[in-house]
Design goal:
Pfam families: NfeD (PF01957). This is NfeD family protein. The protein is of the alpha+beta class. It has two domains: about 70 residues, no CATH class; about 60 residues, Beta Barrel (OB fold (Dihydrolipoamide Acetyltransferase, E2P)), CATH 2.40.50. It contains three helices and five strands, in the order αααβββββ. Strands 1-2-3-5-4 form a five-stranded mixed barrel. Helix 1 runs antiparallel to helix 2 and helix 2 packs antiparallel against helix 3. The longest helix is centred in the middle third of the chain and has 27 residues. The mean pLDDT is about 95.
Length: about 140
């Protein structure tokens, strides 16, 4: 079998292996094997094919792999809806206790209850949203 064909078979096996692992290491070795195949087609000696394939695989691993991983990783998790209000600062607009009250969160007025239920927040105080329970914000005293 010709040298270039051996390199192509090795590269193909490495690419298939990459499909199993998905950590972008075998694909870099496969690209190095393709460099060896090109050199074999050009008639370069086997020792130089191996050296070039090794150097190319190392170069791809150090140069291309970090860029590829960065592009494949997900961005920050997007939080929407009422889950986005958890942790937000709220302004008490109507006395809040364990039974009810009103707060302003991100410009919207929400019904609210305090946590713990014995806590009383007067109008004008700052609070922090602990969770949203239906259409009611569960809040506690805002502390720096």
């Amino acid at each position: 079998m010709a040298d270039w064909a051996i390199w192509v078979v090795v590269a193909g096996a490495l690419f298939v292996g990459e499909l199993m692992t998905l950590d972008l290491i075998l694909v870099m070795l496969g690209l190095g094997a393709l460099v060896g195949a090109v050199l074999a087609l050009l008639g370069v000696d086997v020792v130089w094919q191996i050296v070039a394939a090794t150097v190319a695989a190392g170069g791809f691993g150090l140069g291309l792999r970090p860029v590829a991983r960065r592009h494949l990783q997900r961005g920050p998790q997007l939080v929407t809806g009422v889950a986005a209000l958890v942790g937000e600062q709220a302004l008490v607009v109507e006395r809040v206790d364990g039974l009810g009250g009103r707060v302003k969160v991100r410009g919207e007025i929400w019904s609210a209850r305090s946590y713990p239920s014995s806590l009383v927040l007067d109008a004008g105080e700052q609070a922090r949203v602990l969770r949203i329970d239906g259409a009611t914000a569960i809040v506690h005293r805002f502390e720096l």
